[in-house]
Amino acid sequence: MPAQSEMAPAAIEARGLERTFKGGVEAVRGIDLSVAAGEVFGFLGPNGAGKTTTVRMLCTLLPPTAGSAHVAGVDVLRDGAEVRRRIGVALQEIGLDPIQTGRELLELQCGLYGISGADARARAEELLELVGIADAADRRTKTYSGGMKRRLDLASALVHSPEVLFLDEPTTGLDPASRLTVWDEVRRINAGGTTIFLTTQYMEEADQLCRRLAIIDNGRIVAGGSPEELKDRMGHDVVSVGLNGADPAATQAAIGELPGLERVMVEQDALALYVEDGPASIAEIVRRLDRTGVSVGSISVARPTLDDVFLQATGRRLEGDEEPAAAA
Ligand SMILES: Nc1ncnc2c1ncn2[C@@H]1O[C@H](COP(=O)(O)OP(=O)(O)OP(=O)(O)O)[C@@H](O)[C@H]1O
Ligand SMILES: [Mg+2]
Known about the structure:
single chain, 328 residues, alpha/beta, Rossmann fold, Alpha-Beta Plaits, 2 domains, four-stranded antiparallel beta sheet, 14 strands, binds adenosine-5'-triphosphate, binds magnesium ion
């Protein structure tokens, strides 16, 4: 029933949300957002952008210095206790008791929400299955891998079946395989009807998981929409010229001023040319390189990525999108 879902109240609504810390750090500088019930919404931004500060305000862990927010229809300033009953939170820093087992931790967490006895045991079992760590349920958490700890932390945020789940950088520090597993859990939890607000530094993660997202930089939202809308709105293609050792400056000079060229980025052993029409530009680039005798490794046209969207909005690349070397 589309008419009804259009009328459904937003799961998260923020207006002019700001947070200035003592000493004058303006971590969040006026954020407006609206997240529909049932959606996975992403907050994509680099280190220090204000992601955690925003999550903490929405979760009632930190009072805003200005603005207002409602979560699950409840005012975070007026009725924090009710908001906390309706949300689950998995923060960036995981604090697990190393000598507890996963099952003990979840049963204890159930107790905090008034679920006890057989109900708690059943709920713990269900969640262990949901996040795929049932096999390790009776091992101490200190023996868990980084990915297993994340999944246990996710499970513990779900014991009371929250309407809205906040995940602050759920995959930072995980190896690529564990990252994929966490993505699967997020999709599965969302399929059960839970609205998810997640922060990430990884464009790929925002692209894969989020129906809509906001790009945050320096405490402000600089772009927002679905991943496809954001990329389409860029209105241009990216032509990548693989240098294969050729000199970047000489290659750039040989290509010169192309029609519809908006920007050139020198990357590691490649040039990225932002052009209106990728295929037409490729033909012209090949002609010009041929004429000047500069030889390059490869030329290809690619759809813009969310990193390109970030670049257009901020003039910088998103940092930290490389794979982390080791799991935490
Ligand atoms: N308690 C605090 N006191 C003072 N400044 C703070 C405090 N917490 C955060 N900040 C500052 O606010 C800014 C935003 O921090 P925040 O932790 O929200 O960023 P983030 O987007 O979560 O970054 P990361 O990706 O590294 O987790 C940073 O400049 C940070 O140093
Ligand atoms: Mg953070």
